[in-house]
Design brief:
The protein is of the alpha/beta class. Helices cover 51% and strands 12% of the residues. The chain has two domains: 13-84, 434 Repressor (Amino-terminal Domain); 87-112 and 154-274, Endonuclease Chain A (Endonuclease, Chain A), CATH 3.30.870. Residues 21-74 form the HTH cro/C1-type domain.
């Protein structure tokens, strides 16, 4: 075929999706326009998706699967495309988080996703779009994933969730005062749940702070331990007990130095009252 661009599925998740779409279309013997007519878009749109110039939406992947009779192959591949804005390793972590019986979080500078209101998450997402870090669609996918993760906590039996927030999480303003007021209210509601413990690590614990970087520790149903931490470029999931157990020890020491639950809630409430 004249001007038929060669595709390299190894180049990126988008390229892999495009190559799969073209392969399935070729099996049917359809042109791009013929597939487009069945999906309800333009042949130019099909071309852009196949060559990786346009990101496939979940709706597009589902429509293409139906038209091509490919089950959910394109939908599954589209998830990898949509997750490309996430750090490598994070989707794997989310799968473990959804099965964990105990979740321990330590966060610095920002409220962790499991405790964010939709407005707080949206404000962070808007910031990534304005800075050119992510597209609007990628930011929306991140927000949707946060909602899915929060929903996964409502299961039987419920996981125990321990959260230690560095004081910087509370003092960093995200959005306006109304948004932060709602976020503080969300933290206080979270602290009252029967399966949670929320603590604040104040600045004045100084050198007694055993952890300085964010970390997540999971206890799985078989009581094995998993840790997750992020660098600037990727997330790292660690299953080796020799590496994870010392982190758990540090976490217990951090909890001992942090404010008790009641004092932590009182601090959050005071900050909330201080909002104009």
């Amino acid at each position: 075929m004249v001007n038929r661009k060669e595709l390299d599925p190894e180049r990126s998740p988008s390229a892999a999706f495009g190559a799969l779409l073209r392969s399935l279309r070729d099996e049917r013997g359809w042109t791009q326009d013929e597939l487009a007519e069945r999906i309800g878009c333009s042949g130019a749109h099909i071309s852009a998706v196949e060559t990786g110039r346009r990101t496939p939406t979940q709706q597009f992947a589902a429509s293409a699967d139906r038209a091509l009779g490919s089950g959910d192959r394109l939908q599954r591949q589209s998830r990898a495309v949509r997750y490309r804005a996430l750090l490598e390793g994070f989707p794997e972590y989310v799968a473990h988080e959804g099965r964990a019986v105990e979740i321990r979080l330590y966060e610095v500078g920002v409220i962790p996703g499991l405790l964010q209101t939709q407005e707080y998450a949206s404000a962070l997402g808007d910031s990534t779009v304005k800075r050119g870090v992510a597209s609007r669609e990628q930011a929306d996918e991140r927000i949707s994933l946060i909602a899915q993760r929060q929903a996964s906590l409502i299961r039987t039996p419920s996981p125990l969730v321990f959260v230690v927030l560095d004081e910087s999480c509370l003092l960093r303003p995200i959005g306006g005062s109304t948004l932060m007021d709602a976020q503080f209210a969300r933290l206080m509601e979270f602290a009252e749940l029967p399966n949670t413990v929320l603590q604040v690590a104040p600045f004045d614990i100084g050198v007694r702070r055993p952890m300085t970087l964010p970390v997540t520790l999971l206890t799985m149903p078989d009581r094995s331990l998993v840790s997750y931490a992020e660098s600037a470029n990727r997330g790292h999931l660690e299953r080796d007990s020799g590496s994870v157990v010392p982190l758990l020890t540090d976490y217990h020491q951090l909890q001992a130095e942090a404010l008790p639950r009641a004092a932590s809630v009182a601090m959050i409430n005071q900050l909330r009252k201080g909002n104009p």
